Amino acid sequence: MDLPLIIATSALLTLMILITPTMLPLLIKNHQNSPYTITQSVKTSFMISLVPATMFMYSGLESITFHWQWKFITNFKIPLTLKMDQYSLMFFPIALFVTWSIMQFASWYMASEPQITKFFFYLLIFLIAMLTLIVSNNMFLLFIGWEGVGIMSFLLIGWWHGRAEANTAALQAILYNRIGDIGFILCMAWLAISMNTWEIQLHSSQNQIPLLPLLGLILAATGKSAQFGLHPWLPAAMEGPTPVSALLHSSTMVVAGIFLLIRTHPMIHNNQTALTTCLCLGALSTLFAATCALTQNDIKKIIAFSTSSQLGLMMVTIGLNLPQLAFLHISTHAFFKAMLFLCSGSIIHNLNGEQDIRKMGNLQKALPMTSSCLTIGNLALMGTPFLAGFYSKDLIIESMNTSYLNTWALLLTLLATSFTATYSMRMTLLVQTGFARMTPVSPINENNPAIINPITRLALGSIMAGLLITSYILPAKTPPMTMPLPAKIAATVVTTLGIILALELSKMTNTLTIPKQNPLLNFSLTLGYFNPLIHRLSSMNLLNNGQKIASHLIDLYWYKKMGPEGLAALQLKAAKTSTTLHTGWMKTYLASFALTIMIILISSNH
Amino acid sequence: MTFLHLSFYSTFTLSSLGLAFHRTHLISALLCLESMMLSMYIALSMWPIQTQTTSQTLMPILMLAFSACEAGTGLAILVASTRTHGSDHVHNLNLLQC
Questions:
Q1: Alpha carbon distance A538, A541 (integer Å)
Q2: Contacts of residue A421, Cβ cutoff 8 Å, sequence gap at least 6
Q3: Where do the TM regions start and end (chain A) (predicted)?
Q4: Which residues in chain A have Cβ-Cβ distances shorter than 8 Å to B40?
Q5: SS (H, E, C) A153-172
Q6: Taking the model in full, what pTM does it have?
Q7: Which of A137, A164, A473, B6 has its CA 20 to 30 A from that of A382?
Q8: Sign of dihedral through CA atoms A267, A273, A279, A282?
Q9: B29/A597 Cβ within 8 A
């Protein structure tokens, strides 16, 4: 059995099946796509992508296929190569599984949308761009995929483009991603100059790469994966429909930045400064996002901040020099995060558009399937032992506890882990338990296979994915086997503390009265004061300076003040000064005679 | 500088200061002007004797002619302003003051 051929062929077939719905209207006249056909193509693609994945698990075979070469200039050629390695072969089935479930869900969620086929088409193009990013072997093709997911994110966030907040959020996403792209292009430029190639496997892992291109890569990851500093676009992106949030901003697009760092890990792993930057940046992002999620009342925003926090955790793992573990976390996170978003979408539609958790309650009895899956998702997110999140999250915390690193980063991550438990438990309690706080007449009905099947499928994935992936993929670095008892159970202990805190606090809100507003919550409520400060300050400075240079500098200064009017002003000043001498008095006139004679006498003595 | 040069310089300087810083009457300014002319005449006369260039002895005579003209002009101004204003005070000549 010719394994490389089968792996390469089936991987390419996966991509080809995905491209089919885009090609068919061009080839066949009067061909109409429909949501059903697009969903079916994604499902077929998923089934076929299982073939190379299982081949890889069986044999450990990785391959690079070469398709075409763009002969750009004489000695710098850009080949079109696809790399089927552990990361791309494992991510294909996961991404396709999640997308299939989301598309099935979206056929119910967006059923009243007149342009539903266009929506599905956008989702499909997004998926193609994302898979291009995953499977590419050089930075150029990766950048094509990178920009593709950015554009589709803009189009999908602003799907309801009549809404001003949606347009603002889409623009925010593009701007913040653009800042990250500067770092990406910096790295590409450096690579083109010094290594004359953009192929990732050719980047030597022996040489000491200078810090500048690595900082460019970290900047790109900060922009795309919403680390602290370039993070506001991710909560704002919740303006898009829930399937968009589930696909882009939880499972696939936002992990592109982390995936870039995983792919270029051979460049980073020798440079301790870059690794420490990743570590501290990730720790700060995870804690900041977890803090902001504590006081949010919109269910989608809580899940968005949860995503941001988990992305910070992935960045921390990169900083620990463990790319494979980061990829494991990406894979398991995709399942339960997409499921959380789908459950929230089901709740929102069933409550006729209500997104505020203070107006939900007792959904455990009204929406049993949805709330069970919500509970499973939250438990997996918290890292409950032996669900999917446990295999990645607990390993990350254990590795942090047993390695020689920055204590501040460790403390922040542990604190963020307990906050994760707190806000997840808060969401669960407020949404599912207690008394119903919604309006009496709500169209609550979840008896639709288009809702139930995707959610249960993803729930099954959330439970089993961790076990399956870790059973079949060998770790590249030896995980820590022995550690003292507190280090081993640290993650579980802080999670339990967070749960207890949430239970106590929720009891407090129901039974005790809080007399006045609590100013301690202001930092978390206003998302750290970041948005108004940075959005207004930087743009005002930039625009002011621009106006000065563009209009004031040329017109006012060069033409007026330095030119004619400036000369006139100088003359005026000189004239005004000499008027005091020209008074017309005889004495002054004769004194000037004396002065002249004095000067001549004195100077002629030399 | 020799004593002779010093006397010429000091006479000229003092006369010019007198011209500039007189107080009331125009005639005192004209008198200072005459003393300036006098010192210049004596200096110009001494000079060809000291440098033994006899062709320069024409200089003081020329200077004298011109100074006579200027003295006549000055006196004419004096008489004209006296006839107009009734006295020869210098502040009569502040015609252009602002």
A1: 5
A2: A382, A494, A495, A496, A497, A498, A499, A502
A3: 6-28, 48-70, 90-112, 119-135, 141-162, 174-193, 244-262, 274-295, 369-388, 408-429, 450-473, 485-503, 586-604
A4: none
A5: HHHHHCCCCCCHHHHHHHHH
A6: 0.76
A7: A473
A8: negative
A9: no
Q: Say which amino acid occupies A530.
A: F
Give the SS3 label for residue B71: helix
**B91 in A contact zone (CB under 8 Å):** yes
Distance CA A114, CA A482 (A): 58
Q: At what angle do helices A86-109 and A116-135 cross, to 10 degrees?
A: 170
Residues in B 30-89 with any Cβ partner in A closer than 8 A: none
Distances (CA, A) of A411 to A287, A319, B19: 10, 15, 95
Question: For the segment A246-301, what is each residue's pLDDT rounded down to a tens digit?
Answer: 998 888 888 899 999 999 998 888 889 999 999 999 999 999 999 999 888 899 99
* Residue % of chain A over a pLDDT of 70: 98
Domains of chain B: 1-92 (1.10.287.3510)
Residue with tokens 């809080």: A514
Q: How far apart are CA A388 and CA A380, in angstroms?
A: 6
State the pLDDT at residue A204: 66
Read off the pLDDT of residues A211-249 as tens digits, 9 standing for 90 and up: 999 999 999 999 999 999 899 999 999 999 999 999 988
| pLDDT for A176 beyond 70 | yes
CA-wise closest residue to A339 among A308, A368, A381, A305: A381
CB-based contact A586 B17, cutoff 8 Å: no
Rounded to 5 degrees, what angle do the CA atoms A412, A414, A415 make? 65
Give Cβ neighbours of residue A573 (< 8 Å, ≥ 6 apart): none
- How is residue A577 written in tokens? 């000064």
